[in-house]
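## retry 2 of 3
previous attempt timed out at serialization; input unchanged, resubmitting
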Amino acid sequence: KLVGTDLFSAENWADVFGKLVVERIKAKLGEDYQGDTDETVAASAVDPSRWDFSDDGIIVQFQPYEVAAYAVGSPTVTIPWSDLSGMLVDRAQDLVP
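## retry succeeded, writing output
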């Protein structure tokens, strides 16, 4: 089972990653954003079971109603690998499928 420290070496990785996700999901959804609190959304975002991986970065999946109305569906945001520079273990991208 993947845990955050398998990918991240920075001690404060969860805080930084969570903030990046909150910023991106707010920007993506605009007025449709309805997250409970930024802290709750950030805490959800650092759960590796929500992650998928692409060449572009780490994709974070939210469930309906979690950050927006049901009609919005299950929004995702991608945090580019470049935004995570200096926070990752060496060769982190080689660890992900």
